[in-house]
Amino acid sequence: MKNNKIFLTFDVEEFTFSVNNNFESKFKDTTKLPKKGCEKILNLLKEYQINSTFFFTANFADMEKRITKKVSDEGHEIACHGFLHQDLTKLNLGRIEKDLKKAKKMLENIAKTKVIGFRAPYLRINNNIFRILERLNFKYDSSLQYHFFHPYGKISPSIKEFPVSVFPFLRLPISWYWMRNLGLNWTNLATKILLKKKQNVILYFHTWEFVNISNFGKIPFYIKRKTGNCFLDQLEKFIHNFESSMFKTLRDYEKNEKYWI
Ligand SMILES: [Zn+2]
To answer: Are 32 and 208 in contact (CB under 8 A)?
Structure first.
């Protein structure tokens, strides 16, 4: 019997919207916001006694070892979101393999746990990258989101795919800025329909979304709207709607055939 669940996932990456051109030299500042957001999320998850999956860039984890270790120590899953937050489809394959190998190892050393999950930065992935994931012993990927604008992609047979959920039938996204801009009811309704259809629900957020960036310049309106505690409240209300036992990590999903769809 299928035993469908909800998987909250958080991408923990450098916040680079305001440093586009001078990315490398400003790393220090790029980790502050996501770190702060991460702490708020940890408190919320602890309150509801639920565990989630956190996709870290190795660079962030290396610069913020304490919070990375804390996420792991509190029972959440540490997964890989690349070495830097770069579009991998634009790099050569040798470089991608070298970076991901290094990233996986760094995350495992910092968090003292095995890393089996991967999500590509910007959710951009292709079959060559899937083959690299296979070689590096990743067990699952969560980079695909079959939304309206996205064609169904071919998936590597030996890596399990846990796609980010979209609104049933409409195939519009239900995570991060879509949830903030369209409101809680949008994501709530989609989740309820998916669960009723006996499907798993995978939502994704960035930890920086839980810090108020609405006054930042140069960032598109829809990206910065309703960030900070406003979004934290929204997430709390969402969690409140469902039993705590509904929420699992993707690592649990990978291990438990009952959750497979
Ligand atoms: Zn990301």
So the answer is: no
